[in-house]
Amino acid sequence: KSVKTTAYLNSIIDDFKLSLDNDDIQIKKQFVIDKDIEIDKFYFTTAVLNILENAIKYGKGNTEILIEAKIVNTNFKVMISDNGIGIPKKELKFLFDKFYRVGNKEVHNVKGLGIGLYYTNQIIKAHKGEILVDSQVDKGTTFTITIPIT
Ligand code: ATP
Ligand code: MG
C-alpha cells in the first residue's frame, strides 16, 4: 500500500503534537520527498513515535526536534534529532537491547522499561530496514531510520 508520504509524515507529527501538553516543544520538519512510496504504516508510525517520545523524555527543556525525511536511491531515510541530554558513546551499542536504559543520574527519575527502542529496532529489522544512532552528551541525539523502498 503506497501512501502519500509527506501527508502521512505530517499526520504522525500533528497527532504527536496534539498529545503534548507542553507548548515549548518545537518540532521542525525538512522533507525532500518527490514521490509516494510503500511503507508499512503500523511499524513506521510505531518507530517514529517511540523516537519522538524519547526526544521529549530525555530533553533538557526548550526541546527542539528536527525531523528530516528524504529518498536516497532506493531507500527512504528519516532522521530525528533532538537537543536533549545525549547518550555517552560507550552506551550506544546497547541502546537497542531489551530493557536497556542508560544509568546516568539525569535519567533516574524518568520512567521507562527500556523496551521502546528494542521494539522499534525489531520491527524495522523485520522489514529489512536499519536504525542507527549518533549522540553527543549534553548536545543531543540523532536517530536515522533507513527503509528500502520496494
Ligand atoms: P520505554 O520506551 O520502554 O518507555 P525507555 O525510554 O527507557 O523506556 P528506550 O526507549 O528503549 O527505553 O530507550 C532506552 C534508553 O536510551 C533510555 O532509557 C535512555 O537512557 C536512552 N535514550 C533513548 N532515547 C534517548 C534520547 N533521545 N536522548 C537521550 N537518551 C535517550
Ligand atoms: Mg522510550
From TrEMBL:
<feature type="domain" description="Histidine kinase">
    <location>
        <begin position="1"/>
        <end position="150"/>
    </location>
</feature>
<protein>
    <recommendedName>
        <fullName>histidine kinase</fullName>
    </recommendedName>
</protein>
